[in-house]
Amino acid sequence: MTWKRCLGLAAACAVAHPLLAQGTTAPVNDSGSTAWMLTSTTLVLLMVPGLAMFYGGLVRTKNVLGTMMHSYAAMAVVGVLWAAVGYALSFGPNALGGLIGWDSKLFLLRGIDHTILPAGVPEYAFAMFQGKFAIITPALIAGAVAERISFRGWLAFITLWVLFVYCPLCHWVWAPDGYFFNLGAKGAIDFAGGTVVHISSGAGGLALALFLGARHGYPKTAMAPNNLTFTLLGAGLLWVGWFGFNAGSSVASNLETARALTVTQVAAATGALTWILIETIRDDKATSLGMASGILAGLVVITPAAGVVQVGGAIALGAIAACCCYGMILLKNRLGYDDSLDAFGIHGTGGIVGALGLTFFIRDAWWVEAGAKVPGWGILSQLRVQGFAVLCTILFSVVMTLLIAALVQKLIGFRVSEAVEKTGLDHELHGERAYGLNNLN
After folding, report:
1. What is the torsional sign of CA 387, 243, 240, 89?
2. How far is CA 111 from CA 11, 81, 104, 162, 257, in A?
3. Which of 8-17, 223-232, 403-412 is predicted least confidently?
4. Within 10 A of 312 (CB to CB), how many other CB atoms are there?
5. Angle, CA 164 vertex, CA 162 and CA 170 arms, to 5°
6. Angle between helices 167-174 and 379-411 (to 10 degrees)
7. ∠ at Cα 25 (23, 29), nearest 5°?
8. Which of 86, 144, 317, 413 is within CB 3.0–4.6 Å of 343 for a Cys-Cys bond?
9. Which of 387, 54, 37 is nearest to 189 (CA)?
10. Structural domains of the chain, ranges and CATH numbers in brackets
């Protein structure tokens, strides 16, 4: 395990352990950084139940449990998959010409039993931290196809999607020998998952929604949320968990960590405020769903940028993301495609805005270092790098998602029948009802 890999795992923003500068070859455990990484891992896992509540509140009563099970299933399936091979595929050295990583010593995490990373944290802590990213990414996709997919199809889909979409992208962006990590002066900037998590899940979700088709009756039949209280609580849990998501990506407990936490808070607040102001001006009413959507827009947009922008940039990105995500949802309604819970409208759009927009708000110190490595490096140069990474992520996620979806549909079935959809996923697929009431739909 080299110190460069440790830096790569932190999205190119981690600071090497001070002992490295003294020529020490055996890093020692930093209890403060380790404690923060363990806390961050817990916070990111908390986001999955938060996402389940967020999505569960937005669907009809007959589909609450089925929708929440999509998130919880990701915890189970990807939790095992990541420990077995996902970490090795993502953070092992280049294999197959760099298309993926692989290190047999990382299979079942066997080779990290005594490893302390140069940042001063056990590799176990980092592996589990990154595993939570792998869990929540496919769970986000479920929002695009809520209320119309089979549970067994979903299990097969997320298994294949993590292996053939998430792990390659993770390797390209965060492994030190990855394609995007080595673009330009300092690589494509993605501090905590703008491309790896949000653009991939948003673009993949949109492709899957178009492949499976709209829910029966959409958009003519009313499909109102069953419990916006759930959605607000879910948004709150996501906000809290996101501090681990972004600030934990420094793989340290230092100034970089505090910067990431600060801009995360500011961007989320700005996104929420901007969204409710738009609603107040446009409709004379600020809604709870708008507040929740604005929170997410702000959180998503700052995710790739948390390591390089300052507070002013966080405010600007939060406001821009809220406007763009709001506009994308209006466009969806006009075009009529059924991205059920706006996975692309918020995660895909917000991720794209963040990955590209961060270029205009990078702190001066970053440019000084980049310019030293590549004289004359500037905004347009970095924007080209960011644009290339975004475009490749979209194309790769869309193509692979469609191939996986077609395979699952053909082999075991993915879309439920019209009869099952009308009765509801909870009763038909799980034999349960969320609230124990038979007359709710």
Report:
1. positive
2. 22, 17, 8, 22, 28
3. 8-17
4. 11
5. 70
6. 160
7. 110
8. 144
9. 387
10. 3-430 (1.10.3430.10)
